[in-house]
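Q: I have two molecules that I believe assemble together. Could you output structure tokens for the complex as a whole instead of separate predictions?
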Amino acid sequence: MSKRFALIAAVCALTALTAAAHHSFAIYDMTQNIEFEGLVGVVKLRNPHMAMTLVETKADGSKATINFVEGAPANMIVHLGLNPDDIAPGKKIKAIGAPRRDNPAEFFLKAVILPDGQKFSVIN
Amino acid sequence: MRNSVAGLVAATAVVLAAAPHAVLAQPARGAHPDFSGLYFPGGGRSQTPQQLPYTPAAKKLAMEYESHFTLDDDPGRFCIWPGMPRAVWGAPFTVEIQQRPQDVSIYWEGYGMYRKIYMADHNPPKPVLPSAMGLSVAHWDGDTLVVETTNLKPYPYMTRMATSSDAQVVERLHLEERDVKGEKQKFLVNQIVLTDPKVYTEPIKITATLQSRPDLNLLEYTCTDTLWEDYLSQRGLTLPDLDALPSTGR
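A: Yes, here they are, computed for all two components at once.
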């Protein structure tokens, strides 16, 4: 299979997530892409949706915990090629989130960016 | 950003839909096409009519449902199988098909669903309990597998394609070869007709396609452990962390 076809297949996978997610994404403001950087706190690689916290260190040295209450199903994370070890607790990553409309302190995990720049997007 | 995804998706759908396709080479006389293999949803999906043709009584139920149930109340969130016919185009995961002369087994990674299709000429079982996948009995019409499914339990979630226990599903499945960006790819096309006179005023026709993906694998998908954890969390309980125990090395 060519790389181009693999890309098409990946796009189809994203299509399917959009169309057949377990519930509507309307509860999140998916137009937003808020980037965070920090150390993975708790990660729950589970279905139907993964969950994760990220501990950010602010400029003044204080810490903030970002709560990604939902993300892709764990199985989809694996199919996308993201190694679970790369988002184990304590790992430094960047994460892109979309806030819940009724609670902006909770996020949907849209993408993970590893220190080497590899980006794993569930939805753009 | 969602629009950009939609645009990319639409472009892909156009590419796939526009790709020239042909029914795969005829099998030897007396033989039937073999659907066995690994697949992934892809290659397009269509539905007619697009707007669900509710009966007046079902429309009233749908409106009441939508006024009380929130987007968080989706059955998929609670690991409830979409069942037939929704499973056909459902979760975006690998699908494995195993075909034998007497039956066809379908395993969906999503929700860990499985389904058995019995061949009519191999003494299929009688219906027992209504179920999410129902009782499916099939026969060959040339190279097309015709599957009739009944004995479905109600799926009363009106934000999806709800069905009553009177629902019947007829599927016509065949293999196609399509040219995708210069490469020959195999697709399993499923033309579905859902009839449910209690809920819909006319049959709903859906075409859903699986793309052959022998490069994929079928992973275990568990979901109910999440519900269990959430339940324990509400009770203030935490499961013991066995991985934190020291190893004896034996």
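A: One point stands out. Chain A has two helices and six strands.
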